[in-house]
Amino acid sequence: MAAQHRVAPGPDALGDGPLPKHVQLREILRELAANELLPGSPVPSERELACRYGVSRLTVREAVGQLVADGVLVRVRGKGTFTNRPRIDSALHLASFTEDMRRRGMRPETELLGSAEQVPPADTAEALGLPPDRPAYWLFRLRKADGEPMAVERGWYHPDRVPGLLDRPLTESLYTLLDRGYGVRLEQGTQTVLAEGADPETARLLGVRPGSPVLVFRRISTAQGRPVEDMTSWYRGDLYQVTMQLDRTGVPAGPAHPGGNR
Prior knowledge:
Layout: H1 21-35, H2 46-53, H3 57-69, E1 73-76, E2 80-83, E3 88-90, H4 97-103, E4 108-118, H5 122-128, E5 136-145, E6 148-157, H6 174-182, E7 188-197, H7 200-206, E8 213-223, E9 226-236, E10 240-242
Parallel strand pairs: 3-10
Antiparallel strand pairs: 1-2, 4-5, 5-6, 6-9, 7-8, 8-9
Keywords: DNA-binding, Transcription, Transcription regulation
Protein name: GntR family transcriptional regulator
InterPro entries: Bact_HTH_transcr_reg, Chorismate_lyase_/UTRA_dom_sf, Tscrpt_reg_HTH_GntR, UTRA, WH-like_DNA-bd_sf, WH_DNA-bd_sf
């Protein structure tokens, strides 16, 4: 029977010890991602890691899987595994995507995917104060930061507040266009935030797997007390987070309601 030849373990091979090898490897990769690799950089393949550290690919897969679950690494279908990008933090203020990204030193980009003048859903018509059969302007846009897909937006706009909107350039800051082109400065908004899994179309546009977590923002904005915009945005959950200032001022006394806030 022919002898089996094995590759001798290299100088980085992991030894037996109190910690399992997948835990040792996980911490090595965590340190690599934090201190040596730039955000968005590829990490070595399973085969490379297995050879370098003298472990099985199953061990590599377990270590990498834990870091993906922790948000340190991210898998991209057909491309490999990468260090995660730091999340963009939002404090829930009324500002355009373009303004927000520029303030962070990032390059905003907008792709217009669709636009139409059509009758909106009933809840949007109510939010905008329109009769049930009155058309409104609809925009469908993809927002990017430094070339990375960040959000999908579907928005409705009151036709009397912004007449002829669809004939305007719609790939720049819409809030700047409303202000300079119509004298409409959005001043207040009511925003609802929820989390859901990305549907196939949203996932394709954002470059993530279907079912990946996305943050959904629905915002109804007003100018001089009149509704102008009903916008829903789907943001990548791996690149975006929300910070809120909380206090107990004005909290009414009374028993807590089961099931959280509604």
